[in-house]
Amino acid sequence: MQQHNKMVFSDTTNNSGIVQQSRDMMRVDSNQWSTQKIVNSCNNWLDKITGFAIGADRNFQWDDTNHTDLPIGTTDLTAAQSDYSFAQDEQGNSIITLTRIDVKDSNGNWKKLELIDQTYIKQALDEFQRTDGVPIYYDKIADNVIRLYPASATTVSGGIKFYFQRTPSYFVATDTTKQPGVSPLLHRGFVIASSYDGALTLGLNNLQALSVELQKEEQKMITYFADRNEDVNKRLTPSIESCR
């Protein structure tokens, strides 16, 4: 089986880190292309990978492997409150999208809420599940904002468990042994992206060659995050009528 090199951010001993390889490929030194500029390029590339990973297949719950906790959070379920917002996780990472909501009733039992969209609610929204009780559905008002139907009749401490996808673990200029939190197959892309940004900014002669290499890395990324669940049957979502 072919092995793929795992790259650390900076390796001054072997000159094999992303920082060193980027400058070598550009044929420049740290005065011409600083570590902070490489950080910026790498973090932009991380954002691009994250966008592809999340958008390519909703059944594949991608997360940066440098995160030290699972993408799961809890908050209080508040009586008569319908709307909840989840902007950040406990480490301060921005939540990009929610993937599942569970709620706990007053007896301590958890249940999964069913995702709906107001498009399929065939009555006035203010009339749908208007009597507070045990939540059954949630509607994603935005990527990280939900509305419960119905609102809870009781307050339950830690009564909402939310699952999410979030921003990646970004690089900082002082990083050394940190690796990109993605598959080693995609590590070379960080070198190419940083080198391309530098060549574009500095007007280097190898800009065109780096552009070709960048296109190869983008295609590699797209292929890697192609739909992994083609055998999963697609299903229609029925219209939902109130049963209050």
Range of helix content: 25-40%
Gross geometry: elongated
Count the DSSP helices.
Answer: 4
Number of strands: 8
Beta-strand share of residues: 15-25%
Radius of gyration: 23 Å
* SSE order: HHEEEEEEEEHH
Structure, described:
The protein is α+β, with helices and mostly antiparallel strands. It is built from four helices and eight strands, in the order ααββββββββαα. The chain has helices at 18-26, 35-56, 188-202, 207-224, and strands spanning 72-77, 83-85, 95-104, 110-112, 114-116, 137-142, 145-149, 156-166. A four-stranded antiparallel β-sheet has the order 1-8-3-4, with no helix packed on it. A four-stranded mixed β-sheet has the order 2-7-6-5, with no helix packed on it. A hairpin with a 5-residue loop joins β3 and β4 (110-112). α1 crosses α3 (188-202), α2 crosses α3 (188-202) and α3 (188-202) packs antiparallel against α4. The radius of gyration is 23 Å and the shape is elongated. The relative contact order is 0.23. Mean pLDDT is 90; it is low at 234-240.
